[in-house]
Amino acid sequence: MIVLERLSKSFNGVKVLDNLDIEFDEKKITVVIGRSGGGKSVMLKHIIGLMKPDSGKVLISGIDINTLKKKELNEIRKKFGMVFQEGALLDSLNVFENVAFPLRRHLKLSEKEIKDKVHSILTDVGLNEQDNKMPSEISGGMRKRVGIARALILNPEIMLFDEPTTGLDPIMSDVINNLIISMHNKFKFTGIVISHDIPSTFKTGDTVAMLYEGRIIESGTPEEFKNSNNPVVKQFISGSMEGPILI
Ligand SMILES: Nc1ncnc2c1ncn2[C@@H]1O[C@H](COP(=O)(O)OP(=O)(O)O)[C@@H](O)[C@H]1O
Ligand SMILES: [Mg+2]
Q: Residue 25's domain is classified under what CATH number?
């Protein structure tokens, strides 16, 4: 369903993506790992058309999104739910209105329908009776859950999670991982999760892929990944200073 073909992108002469090839399996969760600053968020931004490649293709259901007109791209974007790294909640809106925002923007629903949908998804993510709280009044883990609820509210075919557990303690990370898994079971989206958190990666991924020096250097099941003989992969998952990855 989503294929990146020989995707390249440079900033100020520095290659961030370098002929990157990857296919994301439909209705599965693929976790992409890699170093900070390695181009993971840049890759995601290409998938939703927020960035244009220098060369290469982003194919969504066989369509190269960079050949589309703005209006057509907006149609394709409706297939996506995105959970941003920084949460990206609207600070001036309460929890309810943050989650209702995409509904108000894209659908013409009655106030009752909006209420029902928002409450249903807030229950799914374990946030009952938090409607009136402002983003500044809730914990980081709760903000992540609001972000996930908002991304899910239009029932997207594809969910993108940019480092959903970064900045959370290990227990809250596990809550978020379990939430991603349970929401995936319920809504059956194609999931792409960016992470540099190794335990989370092996727990949530059907497939794990590693981005390194602008390319996918390894991809496979979590089990295959743990047994990889690639020295770069081995060093990354063991978190060791020793190895081919330059610090
Ligand atoms: N809009 C931009 N303009 C210039 N450089 C950028 C831009 N976005 C990302 N970069 C650079 O691209 C590299 C990869 O960034 P990013 O994808 O955010 O890394 P990460 O793997 O941590 O998500 C970094 O060196 C970053 O500074
Ligand atoms: Mg990033």
A: 3.40.50.300
Contacts with 12 (C-beta within 8 Å, 6 or more apart), sequence order: none
Residue nearest to atom 10 of ligand 1 (CA): 11
Q: Is the residue at 131 inside a domain? A: no
Would you say the pTM of this structure is higher than 0.90? yes
Q: Is the CB of 178 under 6 A from ligand 1?
A: no
CA 45 / ligand 2 centre spacing (Å): 10
Expressed as residue numbers, the domain containing 202 is 1-79+158-164+195-247
Listed residue (8, 202, 178, 163) closest to 84, CA to CA: 163
Instruction: Give the chain's mean pLDDT.
Output: 93
Q: How buried is residue 237: exposed, middle or buried, by Cβ count under 10 Å (0-12/13-18/19+)?
A: middle
For ligand 1, whether the C-beta of 13 sits within 6 Å is no
